[in-house]
Amino acid sequence: MLTLYPQRGQLRMVLLRTLTLLLLVSCTFRVLAQEDIKPTFGVIDKASLQMKVCPGDSSADAMFLYDYGETTFGYEANRGIFIKTKIWARIKIFKESGLDQGNILLTYYEGAKTGAKEKLDDISGVVYNLDGNEIVTTKLDQSTIQTEKSAEGYLTRKFNLPNVKKGSVIEYSYTRFTPFLVSATPKAWPFQGSIPIQWSEYKVTIPSFIEYHITFGGYLPFYINESEVVDMKFGLKMLEGKSTSYRLVVKDAPAFVNEPFITTSDDYISKVSFEPSAYKIAGFIGEEFAGTWDQIDWKFRKAALFGEEINAPVFGKEIPEQLLDNAASPKDKMNVGYSYIQKTMKWDEGVALMPASDIKKAYQNRKGNSAAVNLLLINLLRKAGLDCDPVVLSTRSHGKVFKDFPTLENFNYVIARVMVDSVAYLLDATQKFARPGVLPEYALNGFGRVIPKVYQGHFIDIIPKDANSTLVMVDAEFLPEDGKLKGKYSASLGGYEALDWREDFASEPDKKYLEAFQKEFSEWSIKNLTVSNKTEKLDAPVSVKCEFETESESMSPGTYYFDPITAGKMKENPLKSSERIYPLDFTTLVATSFIGTFRLPEGYFIEEMPKAEVITLPGNSARFLYQAKQDGNVIQVTSKVSINKIKFLPEEYHDLKEFFDRVVTKHAQPLVIKKK
Amino acid sequence: MPVRLIILLFLYPFLAKADQDLSVGKIKPELLKGAHAVIRLSELEWEIKSKAEGRLSTHLIVTIFDESGEERYRSLYVGYDQFTKIKDIEGKLYDANGKLLKKLKTTDIQDFGLGLYSDAITDARMKQAQFGEKAFTYPYTIEFSYETVDRNMMFYPKWSAGKKEGTAIESAIFKIKAPEGFAFRYKEKNGAPPVKKSPASGSQVYEWSIANLPADDQTDEYPLPQIDGEPLVLTAPSDFEIQGYQGNFNSWEDMGKFYYTLNAGRDALPAATVEEIKTLVKNLKTDRAKVEAIYKWMQAKSRYVSIQLGIGGWQTIDAMTVAGKGYGDCKALTNFTLAALRTAGIKCHPALIKAGEEEKIMADFPSNQFNHVIACAVLAKDTMWLECTSQTAKPNFLGTFTGGRYALLVMPEGGKLVATPGYKSQQNVRSSKASVNLEENGTGQIEVQVRYAGLQQEMRQAVLYNTTKEEQKKWLINHINLPSLDLQRFELIEENEAEPRVRETLTMNVRNCATKTGTRLFVKPALLSRTIEMPTSSERPTDFYLPLSDYNFTDLDTMAYHVPANYKLETTLPAVKVSSAFGTYEMKAVLDNNRLVCYRSVVMTGGRYPSSDFPAWVDFLKKIRKADRTQVVFVENKP
């Protein structure tokens, strides 16, 4: 991860690779004697048309030969300050499935007044084909461009480029004008996409009156990274001054392929993105967006839909009496208040940092987004006299928080923190089935920032309180002659397993879970499946019990094979790829245990039993314990798999893959039983 | 082709009965069982004004008991386009006692274009109505009513009278009001209630109704195709008019005539294109070769784009435009292909069809049940079918998308229903040959070649043509059912044959290929075979359907294991044969020195089976799965 912070024509670069932090200070640098590409719109080389497969990925269906974006700023009296971005794409089509690249749709914002309308201009398109040795050029027919009113406030322009075939090169360009009223931030530029990009170039000239934090994400190196100071003309004196112009090129970016166990592809894709940090227009606008975390904390405290809401009078006499009872313990108060908001408020599934309108309204509606629900919780708990503060965070799909860049935009979610006898509890009342202290998985993204009533906020680690834990016990009788296994199954689903179960089945008829259970154990005949503690005690596991019977075929007279891991067997390695370039993130810790007790009838003995095994990864980050032992005619087999760390580095991937391979091997091993 | 935007779930209209007591207590207890919601009243009234205009009124009252019911019914969606105008949407919300709590406001209604998230060019739009931000205490009751005025009279509504999963129905009514003597057609299917007719002043009223239907609490694992399973009332026009075009759907012949007239004279090609085609077929001897050449030429020259415009999506863009732009929707590309075939002197017609897996039309009820069009070339001895929206399909291969069903051949003299070729188990073959070199620790080096034909090659073909090498590898790794593997080499290629066939060659190193415990090696004969899922219940009150696209297949697997020399066989070798009404299964193995060769074959036949056969089906699957779990055990030869 590479980050860059422009300040007065100077670049300060921060190289951030997962856990290592490296600082470099440099001015403009340039790799000399390198290949540079400056194509001309409407002119194509024959080699591009003759190309048959994508170099480096022989089965890519299409590839950007050239993907270019250029952002500048402008000013017009009726439109105000605007961002102007020219987009120019040149794409080679290799396969039939790539033909869709010729269908373009561009959505833009259609505000009410001129200063709030986006504009798309200068759409042009060309398609090149090779006919024998001749280059045939077909232009986009402007009359085929359709404009659709897509949703409230948005228009979509759609066009299909003509004569796009296997082998074609297509090219299109357009310019987007975005007034500051619509957005004052250039859109992030991805250097990587779903198809390979041979040359991705982004140019941006940032005027002196505005400052952005510029962030580079992803794992691809820059081929060109240049900046220079230029004069920018606006036709308006106060906007003018020394501007900084950047040129960034990434060469030969492979298609981005999603991997399992990641937070969000946005955290891994190579891109450059912008966050406004300050306006500096003399005598006109002079707003600092952010500078320090202190300022951010202050903003949260003062925000009408945040700090002010937390202390607004919302609740009346309807709240549980215990909350205002001085005799009640703080912990009881917390539990009662949490449960009151959980039960009273319906979460509308909206994820937000701030409520849509004041929380009193949400309370009256009994419904609101995540911020409304959790700010109500904080408000209530403070009213009850508890030490309770908001904690802002970024959900997994929203991506990483950049601690180096203090902005509000880092965050998209808020939860509550209560201190009881100097123990911190993190609460999220949007979750109907979470016990106090358990956060939903999507909110587990490393850390959050506490915004206290006064003075300084600080970052805290958000460590999931619960693991994803399961304990399965099987107590059964093995009848070798007919290959029958008959007995009792019980499972205790704890932590996030319990939360998941409750979310999936707590409000469904019993039949639904029986179906799901039968699907999981499709070879079993199941009797008396019961589930207890569905929702009664959220801090205790969900418990599942049943009786079962199953049979297997035995094919050698006098010798019997018996597969002891009858439930919760790891049948395949969850890590499939042989290599990994991104870190892994398991969201929570994992603990899965199995204890099987099997009884044999008289007259048999165990000829062979799997050996015990203990595997521990460095730092005990993962651990596997396996043991099979015999006591008379009783065999006990235990297996315990635990993942004791949430984030793994790509360098640890091979160890982890090997770890799971060993578990799979062990879990497949049968016992051999013979007749005496 | 047009997507008709009447949301069938809500196809019930409006005859306001403001005085109905909507309190939850009025619901019969038997309707509450397993219900997330109860439809108190659902009325759909289709008033035919003339052959050119109709009015559809919908009135829906639903009591919602929980989140899942709310999920299903809290929003009303009404589609419209240039032919359909929506008149006022009204809504009311009542508490459990039937007391009015809220009325729908204009700000509660949102409007959006259906082309919003796709590159399809369409004028179809949607309105969504929903009662604001507030959470309401369960149970509560919502009432929606609205009208649409329709000027696309090719389509009349369809009404479903079946049980719904999780929703009970107190009363549902479908009414058609037509001018006296006005002819239209209807048909009740699959046990739908019979019509009741009553005269009104100057008009005739037809009414179908159902009442007190409890919620369906069973997830149907083998549902019949909709037109065979669900009680339905289908309706269709006799004479109709759309944008000045007259037509009638009294017979398939008439329907064909209408489509022909609508699209006639749009097949002229530019002179240069005509020349190109003539040169292309000049030296070709047979008509078949000409069709193949033109089809290939068209595939290389054009691409499919979705354009849902023009007489409700039923009139094609002319061939001249397609020749110039190189793109079109299914009508346009078919029309263009037909124009090219005619240039080469081939007799050919468009064929209207209902595309999609397991989709079929009701052959005994002429009406517009189609959503797609393909080309049919009529040769001296047989016909050739061409899917014109694909750039990779082989001529005359229709597959799961359009194979094995009726299509309406559109000829100048009228339409005719003809069957497209279907695909039998013997054609849909997956055959694999693997050789495995087994090491003592259970690791196996596997070389396998799998050939896919018929419907079984479709998935492979899609992966082959639509994904990158990296994605192909990922897809394969995720679809090879092995505990862990290192895929060292792979190749997916389409074989050069008339019928589409895909060949997959894999080289992989597999840990735990055989399970090693102490001195034994457990070898699985069915290691690379596909497993068949078991149903979760073993009883079934109604007929069941095994979709032909999934269950008409033949799997032939051969695996040759080379077992380490110092191991000897401990078990007997499997020899299992099972046959049933659904197909046959066989598994056997032979040992020759240290070479264990395992054969497995499954021939399955899909289709509709009576409920009485269900236990036999479960039993058949159990036997197959049990045989597939068989392991052949070798034990170390201790000196």
The total beta strand count of chain A reads 37
- The helix tally of chain A amounts to 9
* CATH topology type of the largest domain in chain A: Jelly Rolls
The assigned CATH architecture of the largest domain in chain B is Sandwich
**How many strands appear in the DSSP assignment of chain B?**
39
User: How does CATH name the architecture of the largest domain in chain A?
Assistant: Sandwich
Mean pLDDT of chain A: 86
Describe the structure.
The complex is a heterodimer of chains A (676) and B (639). With 676 residues, chain A is mainly beta. Chain A has three domains: 1-30 and 188-289, no CATH class; 293-461, C8orf32 fold; 468-675, Jelly Rolls. In chain A, 14% of the residues lie in helices and 41% in strands. Chain A has an eight-stranded mixed beta sheet. Chain A has an eight-stranded mixed beta sheet with strand order 27-28-26-25-31-35-34-33. In chain A, strands 3-2-1-14-17-12 form a six-stranded antiparallel beta sheet, with no helix packed on it. Chain A is globular and about 95 Å long. The relative contact order of chain A is 0.08. Mean pLDDT of chain A is 86; it is low at 1-33. Chain B folds into three domains: 8-237, Immunoglobulin-like; 251-419, C8orf32 fold (Roll), CATH 3.10.620.30; 429-636, Jelly Rolls, CATH 2.60.120.1130. Chain B is globular. Mean pLDDT of chain B is 90; it is low at 1-18. At the A-B interface, β6, β9, β10, β19 and α8 of A face β6, α6, β18, α11 and β30 of B.
